[in-house]
Amino acid sequence: MPELVFFSGTMDCGKSTLALQIEHNRSARGLQGMIFTRDDRAGEGKLSSRLGLVTDAVEAAEGFDFYAYIVDRMSKGGRCDYVIADEAQFLAPGQIDQLARVVDDLELDVFAFGITTDFRSKLFPGSQRLVELADRVEVLQVEALCWCGARATHNARTVGGRMVIEGAQVVVGDVNAGDEVGYEVLCRRHHRRLMTAATARAAVLSPDVLPVAHDEA
Ligand SMILES: Nc1ncnc2c1ncn2[C@@H]1O[C@H](COP(=O)(O)OP(=O)(O)O)[C@@H](O)[C@H]1O
Ligand SMILES: Cc1cn([C@H]2C[C@H](O)[C@@H](COP(=O)(O)O)O2)c(=O)[nH]c1=O
């Protein structure tokens, strides 16, 4: 039975790498997929992994209709054996419904990849719809780690190096990039305490917590 599968995890846990591996393994066996993405860091119409691999993809912008696009391509003789959709958190709920229809009516496997929650730990609407509709939700096995060594389960946004909890839901960016707006993955405890690696380092270096011997004079 064809399936709608949602591969989810934090940022930087290997979702795009897995998407590229699935694409590689299937195309190596003569299958032909359609690859979609939205707002990848590498630019429009690209699906990229931090391991350096990148492939062309169809940019599924706002208003893009997956079902109509795939039906149109197939009716013109195009082949489609499976569908990959990366950065699926950015898709509108209606677009996720279209992907479910691709599974049910066109009988194609659809593999969607995305982060579940934003920097405020709130569900992205596209991810919420995927959780509601997917046949399976797969949490990636390669765990991203918080600076404390615990499993990272949350995405933090930093602006000018400081963790923020207000702002637009969508701001394309990266971890460890040194940009004005950046991201860092954290465990829940440290996300709740707004404690990034930099904040933790600063706390350790603070004279308030260092066991410094003060002059008695
Ligand atoms: N220099 C590196 N050497 C080995 N693995 C790396 C390197 N850089 C990134 N990775 C791996 O790639 C993962 C990120 O892959 P990517 O597919 O870009 O993540 P996602 O799409 O989930 O944000 C990291 O968690 C790490 O496992
Ligand atoms: C947490 C969070 C992330 N984003 C953006 C930042 C990146 O461009 C993508 C995630 O890509 P990845 O391949 O999973 O690293 O999402 C955002 O717009 N808003 C957020 O709250």
From TrEMBL:
Positions of ATP binding: G9, T10, M11, D12, C13, G14, K15, S16, D86, E87, A88, Q89
Main enzyme class: transferase
Enzyme nomenclature, EC number: 2.7.1.21
Keyword set, alphabetical order: ATP-binding, Cytoplasm, DNA synthesis, Kinase, Nucleotide-binding, Transferase
Cellular compartment(s): Cytoplasm
InterPro entries referenced in this protein's UniProt entry, alphabetically: P-loop_NTPase, Thymidine_kinase
Active-site residues, record numbering mapped to chain: E87
Family designation: Belongs to the thymidine kinase family.
Name of the protein described by the UniProt record: Thymidine kinase
Organism: Streptomyces solicathayae
